[in-house]
Amino acid sequence: QVQLVQSGAEVKKPGASVKVSCKASGYIFTNFGISWVRQAPGQGLEWMGWISAYNGNTKYAQKFQGRVTVTTDTSTSTAYMELRGLRSDDTAVYYCVRDLGYFDHWGQGTLVTVSS
Amino acid sequence: EMVMTQSPATLSVSPGERATLSCRASQSVGSSLAWYQQKPGQAPRLLIYGASTRATGIPARFSGGGSGTEFTLTISSLQSEDFAVYYCQQYNNWPLFGGGTKVEIK
What we know:
The complex is a heterodimer. Chain A is mainly beta. Helix content of chain A is 0%, strand content 53%. Chain A has strands spanning 3-6, 10-12, 18-25, 33-39, 46-52, 58-60, 68-73, 78-83, 92-99, 103-106, 110-114. In chain A, the strands form two sheets. In chain A, strands 2, 4, 5, 6, 9, 10 and 11 form a seven-stranded mixed sheet that branches. Chain A has a four-stranded antiparallel sheet with strand order 1-3-8-7, with no helix packed on it. The mean pLDDT of chain A is 98. In chain B, strand 5 (45-49) and strand 6 (53-54) form a beta hairpin. Chain B is globular and about 35 Å long. The model of chain B has no long low-confidence stretch (mean pLDDT 97). Chain A binds chain B through residues 35, 37, 44-47, 50, 59, 61, 95, 100-109, and chain B through 32, 34, 36, 43-46, 49, 55, 87, 89, 91, 94-100.
């Protein structure tokens, strides 16, 4: 069965960077894209960016351009999301999702807390 | 700039009743519309894609309709496990979610 397993919770100080991993299994990794979606406490869902696991092409939401980088390691079927210049309003649960345009499988989420 | 608007923000429904949720796009997205269900402390779950196709394992009481700019999600007879927050998402252009509708017990 398709599974996306993410790395554990992180606590970071303002200005720091965080890198979240997402290990895929149960399907051919390079056949699908991966997107990253975040959810601030008590808020809705926000798409951040996408990567083709086939050729590494990326697309980012304008809001995060220059601050986020999404990568993959096809040898381990793992996707990564790095967010730099963290602020308190980046405190959120970050999800990786298998991307068919719509998102048919979700990781369990990684809570990133930004606090001084 | 594309905007996705869901209404109502909160829907109070008794178990066994029918619930109809709305999602409006500020410009046409064709049939590139998905619906998700999210329960507290859980990741969202895909319910509907292509505006009206149920995802694998989704009960028949969930149905989606509409095209262009107006979409609906109907739950024909609410079960206890259906009380949750529902989000629509367009994928005609880059992904964008609506603000969500909370379905609560009346």
